[in-house]
Amino acid sequence: MEVIWKQHSRPASQGTSDDEEALAARTVKECESIINSPQKVNFTYVAEGRANAVFSMTENDSPAPSQGRFGGTLLRVPKATLGVTPCDYKTLQAFHENQVEDRVGRQHLVPQALIQISAEVADMLHKTRNKADKSEIRAGHAMLIQDMSASAGYSVLEFKPKWLAQSPIAPPNAKRCRTCAREAFRNHQKRGKGQPVSTPICPLGLVHEDPAVVMDTIKRLTPEWPPLDQTRLSEAFERGGILTKLRELQAKGDPDRALLDTPSDPDFGLAMTLRDCSCYVRMPADPDKDVEIKLADVDKKNWEEKQTYWQDSHWNLVRNGWYTCEEQVGTPILTECLLNGPPPA
């Protein structure tokens, strides 16, 4: 699959030959066949969220775990969870190909391929999980996705860019951006439960006009990285333009009162998807190699299920002073939001 991932990581404008398309289709079918032959493959649990679980795979006849068709590849499967109604994977794949790739650019996305898994495999995967919630994995559509985790010669950063522009319906006197307001509220909740809290990193710093502010934000995201790699990441963000593109699409899809008046609008749905996606950075130790930056979790949102939650979250931040730093809590919540300008040097 690694050859396919490289092929699907090229800009769509470069085109794909008929032979390449045929190879991709054949390879995906072969992988699907092996996955549905449990005696030929071993599954290893990696992680899961509210709606999906992820596994790595190794062919039983591979001479080493890094070889075989599943090198650089993970299996993502949906979870059947009470109270959660995510979009089905076929719809998600169509959204990925027809909406996200066209708007964001295929080269900026973690590539994925749709397959199906049998009931036998679904049961094996369910038993492989080490989670004790009441969800289950069922037969049906699944996805092969490129593995963006750390590997020999690469260090990895994963973060959520979140809202890269202020909410258009935030109070005009706001002192926090949407993300910092939300994180202040969440830190208040954590503090009430006796959990540790940390000052949130303002996402506005990632797209700030001052390169020094961008670099300071990157240093906070990568405190363990050497200065050279932090500079390489800053240059890669500037050169690739992915975060600027995200900000533009978020603002274009939510120009005014879409959250309150037209949450079913497709452009607003894409904006909300891009406010909740993950960004993966693979930093090569070799300075002559390119830094890899790709977005994942660009799933279509079920707006009918989400709209009440989105709207309630907005009104909570507005009415309880989280935007304006006027929250009525015993101990003030510290944030360093760049909505008020960069912090003093």
Provide an overview of this structure.
Strands 1, 2, 3, 4, 5 and 6 form a six-stranded antiparallel sheet that branches. A three-stranded antiparallel sheet has the order 7-8-9, covered by helices on one side. The protein has about 350 residues and is of the alpha+beta class. The chain has helices spanning about 1-5, 20-35, 90-105, 120-130, 180-190, 210-220, 225-240, 240-255, 260, 265-275, 305-320, and strands at about 40-50, 50-60, 75-80, 110-115, 135, 140-145, 155-160, 280-285, 290-295. The termini are far apart. The longest helix is centred in the N-terminal third of the chain and has 18 residues, at about 20-35. Strand 1 and strand 2 (about 50-60) form a beta hairpin. Helix 8 runs antiparallel to helix 10 (about 265-275). About 40% of the residues lie in helices and about 15% in strands.
